[in-house]
């Protein structure tokens, strides 16, 4: 594997509302870890490049309409179709920095009124992240940042509901970073959290499964 010593890579997930800064921070973190010589890749869900991802993308851009449960299961299927590659990469020593994961899946669908446990069920058995960082921003502040791209869900009222459901999902292992800090300060927090997580995985932390 990447270090020739059996060390696996870390599965690091960034979560947060739209415009919380996840995508920029993921890219910065990937370059930083690369610079330190770690094998690392940047991933993003939804992965719009697959055929399931294409259906999701056309739903998000309002080119198609789907029943709420149907789109929920497509988002989940989009993670399942990447699961074996994900496991392979991690075991081969590559750290994955993932922009959104099952928590987005549950928070966004639950915000439409779907039952939380029903939303979680199809995620059971996906790989559990070694670290979840929540970029915390009040929905009003995120909306002020502008640049909502006009996709489905990118509205203040809806993001307020998503925010509530993210709070329900929070568990004590999540690391919460104040997304209202400067880009540099958020970046610095992420660097420390990621380095600690990568070391714990190198030191034998086992891969586990989500919500089982
Ligand atoms: N989203 C994302 C979901 O509703 N369920 C999911 O499982 C995932 C991964 O898709 N508003 C929503 C959240 C976003 C939208 O994501 C597109 P992005 O990160 O803007 O491409
Ligand atoms: Mg978006």
UniProtKB/TrEMBL annotation:
Kinase found in the keyword field: yes
GO molecular function: ATP binding; dTMP kinase activity; nucleoside diphosphate kinase activity
Thymidylate kinase-like domain residues: 14-188
Domain of life: Eukaryota
Pathway: Pyrimidine metabolism; dTTP biosynthesis
E.C. numbers: 2.7.4.9
Keyword Transferase: yes
Enzyme superclass (EC): transferase
GO BP terms in the entry: dTDP biosynthetic process; dTTP biosynthetic process; dUDP biosynthetic process
Record's protein name: Thymidylate kinase
Residues of the full protein shown: 60 to 271 of 273
């Amino acid at each position: 594997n990447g270090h020739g010593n059996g060390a696996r890579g870390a599965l690091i997930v960034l979560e947060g509302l739209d415009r919380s800064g996840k995508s920029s921070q993921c890219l910065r973190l990937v370059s930083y870890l690369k610079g330190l010589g770690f094998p690392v890749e940047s991933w993003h869900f939804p992965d719009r490049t697959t055929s399931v991802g294409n259906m999701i993308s056309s739903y998000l851009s309002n080119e198609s309409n789907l029943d709420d449960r149907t789109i929920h299961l497509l988002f989940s299927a989009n993670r399942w179709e990447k699961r074996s590659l994900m496991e392979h990469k991690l075991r081969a020593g590559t750290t994955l920095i993932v922009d959104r994961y099952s928590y987005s899946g549950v928070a966004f669908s639950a915000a439409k009124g779907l039952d939380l446990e029903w939303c979680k069920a199809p995620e059971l058995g996906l790989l559990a992240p070694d670290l979840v960082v929540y970029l915390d921003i009040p929905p009003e502040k995120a909306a002020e940042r502008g640049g909502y791209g006009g996709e489905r869900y990118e509205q203040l009222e809806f993001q307020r509901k998503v925010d509530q459901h993210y709070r329900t999902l929070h568990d004590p292992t999540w690391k919460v970073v104040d997304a209202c800090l400067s880009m540099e300060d958020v970046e610095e927090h992420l660097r420390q959290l990621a380095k600690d997580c990568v070391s714990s995985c190198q030191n034998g932390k086992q891969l586990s499964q989500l919500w089982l």
